[in-house]
Structure prediction request, 147 residues.
Amino acid sequence: MKIISACLLGCECRYDGRHNRVEKIEEWLRKGEAIPVCPEQLGGLSTPRLPAEIVGGDGFDVLDGHARVIDNEGNDVTKEFIHGAEQTLRIAQTAKASAAILKERSPSCGSTLIYNGTFSKEKRSGPGVTAALLTRHGISVSSEETT
Prediction:
């Protein structure tokens, strides 16, 4: 069983209300091999919502209290991102998921690449908050770009 970012399955749950549908990944859902999640919605954020980036580090740093998730108007949404990551982990553990395929560059789901926290569209290496939490709990995390 896999946990999949819901936006990759065609759900319009991205911050801008759009999706990132990947047909190959959608097939896993049809076969009963995937569970869709949107950590940001699970954390209580609405769709659409303001874009957010991790400031001061990556997802591991957010979990450790050394970085924050801030939206482009300066609102701190760290609590919602951590809560969404925890809810996603709960779903993964309940389903006995061993892997997750998540949306790269997302402050929640990025597996190896996220935006750098300056809202300049520049990227940096590192995971998002959910990807970091799943990794810490032994769930293999990859992105749609490596699938």
Observations:
- The chain is about 30% helix and 20% strand.
- The beta strands are 2-5, 34-37, 52-55, 68-71, 99-102, 113-115, 123-125, 140-143.
